[in-house]
Amino acid sequence: MSNNYTYYLKAIVNSYAIVFFSQNRVLGLLLILVSFFNPAAGASGLFCVLVSLAYVGFAKYDRQDVEKGFFCFNSLLFGIGFGTFYHVNPAFLIWLVVGCLLCTFVTINLWALLGKFKLPFLSLPFIITFWVMLSAANSIFQMGLHQNSSAILNELNDANNMHNTGLFGLSGYVHFYYYPDLFFKALSAVFFQNSAIAGLLIAIGILVWSRIAMSVLILCFTAVLVFNQLTGIYPEGISHYHLGSNFMITAMAIGSFFLVPSWRSYVWSVVAVLFTFLFVNAFTRLIGVFDLPVLSLPFCVISILLLVLFRSQKGKTKLVVLQHYSPEKNLYQSLNCDERLCNFKYFDIKLPFMGSWLVSQGYNGDITHKHEWGQALDFVIADEDNKTYLLPGTLPENFYCYNKPVLACGDGVVVELVDHIEDNEIGAINIKENWGNTIVIKHTDGLYSKVSHLKKGSTKVSIGHHVKQGDIIALCGNSGRSPEPHLHFQLQATPYIGSKTIAYPFSYYTAQDGGRVSLKNYDTPAEGSLIKPVAINPMLKNAFDFRPGYVVNVATESGAAETFEVYTDSFKQSYLYSKQTGAIAYFVNDGTTFYFTGFYGDETSLLYAFYLAAYKVVFTDNGSANDTYPLPGNGFNLAGWLQDLIAPFYRYIKLSYQSNNTADGSKIKITGIQRKNLPNSGKQLMEAVITIDAQGICGFMVNNNKSTTSAQWTTGNIY
């Protein structure tokens, strides 16, 4: 029962907050308070939210969409507008219910219709419903409604029409300096008010929710005033309602909500302001013929037109892919994905051999890797003295790499093969058949790998043969233009043996520099590097083998408990879901590394603690991994607020993560550390330890300097 109360309370608060593209509780509660500055309008708005909520709950619409306020915020706007326009009487109450239901039905239909094109319905349901009710009320039959004013702009800009009783009535007469007063009244006009105090409270809520959104509002408010001054479009000044509900809301939508905040989004928000001048004037003329107000129609039309434009063009202006209802979180998550997940575009290419090999010639090498064939690698095996052979070194068999297995670097199909060319004597080369024995494998459209200088008659495959990564396909030889045994490897965009090379990284390998071994991911080894494939620890790999259906119970000594289950979404992305809190943590397991890609939900949950602890884990003995967290939304933190404000242009705060694997008897411990890094300083924020045994994860501990969470990990099933 308590969960239902929480659900409905969130849905009510979010129905208010989402008017400003937010899910922030503080902003939502302040908007509820502000709506009651006009008691009749506030009560009507809240009543309409409850009616819509009851209907969509009864109709079993998706609870997450309902909780976010999707189906109720247009009814809220209708209720507030209706309560502002008309006197309360029995007919008012009847038509309020009818209009609210109509608005809900229009919302659902536009949600289904525009959703097919992945477009938002914005405040179109409110506009359509309000026009229908106004047209009906202004007909010769009147419907029993008594209008407070016949013109919406007079209603919104005439303080005498406010309810002048008590504190709320007085608020309409409190004046600030001219421009702040205009700014705050414009914000209050979104809720059909003309109060600087109401606008101030809304501005405080917006500032608490998002510094970026507030900066966009101020920028575009200034742009509107400057442009109006230059053009003289509105010599008497812009109406508060249009300034708030069209100019400023459009700027906020484009500059900080639909687009990932950046200098480009700020520019587009100003461009949107210029379009708004045009559309407000045009719609005032067109719709005024029917004696109807424009309302927020320019905002809806401009936002949808620009969204279609952004989706159809390629460029650096980025749309928000997964909405967090926070400009800061949208930005930080986007930047984090750009840094961490850019490797998703690469096909998984592994080293084409076993054991340690030396890169004898790298990209653009001095010997043969020249010009359009420069992005290639030559590999040999060397001993501690850096020699590639045993004495006397006069036969191919004297060389360490000769006759060693050559592996498929990735899954694919063999498309070219040469296997008849004799191996050269040491020091001799075959210029006529310079590639020697060669295998070309197609991995995906536009990506082929080639290994050359193979031993005659050693190929294990044929053209058309399907291979898996790690399959032995041939033996290293000395054919072609090869004075001594070595393996030539390259990636190319076409299937021919003589194709030009392309630069392309290996997904994972380890490189040895002196006594130090480091893990490289999506990197290309340099000439002189000693490299080898990653040695996977099966205990670590099995511990993080979270496949769909995996269930685990996590409990702390204090009695907190959650059940995690693994699911996959429609995009085949895996995630852990906390049944108790609804939190979700997306992850990737590529067979070498486990890492989280995003967290959504309750940050006090045990799933969030595990997300912090196991942010990135590599499956190697004594392995270490480094990564960065997305910056969180900053609470009441002045330094964090400053970073939020300038984040679209520059970041000076970073959250780093490092994990280290250490053996502890029969167990393995993974220690994770989170640090906050500033230009000239740093601070450890969290330390975590995950304990693993032969059965899998035993438990984890997270210490964030304020509290310590220790949890036991009990699997509910094994596949």
UniProtKB/TrEMBL annotation:
Main localization of the protein?
A: membrane
Q: Which InterPro entries has this protein been placed in?
A: Ammonium/urea_transptr, Dup_hybrid_motif, M23ase_b-sheet_dom, Urea_transporter
- Give the subcellular location: Cell membrane
Return any one Pfam family short name: UT
Q: Choose one Gene Ontology CC annotation of this protein and give it.
A: plasma membrane
Q: Where are the transmembrane segments?
A: 12-34, 40-58, 70-86, 92-114, 121-141, 186-209, 216-234, 240-259, 266-286, 292-310
Q: Which family does it belong to?
A: Belongs to the urea transporter family.
Q: What is this protein called?
A: Urea transporter
- Source lineage: Bacteria, Pseudomonadati, Bacteroidota, Sphingobacteriia, Sphingobacteriales
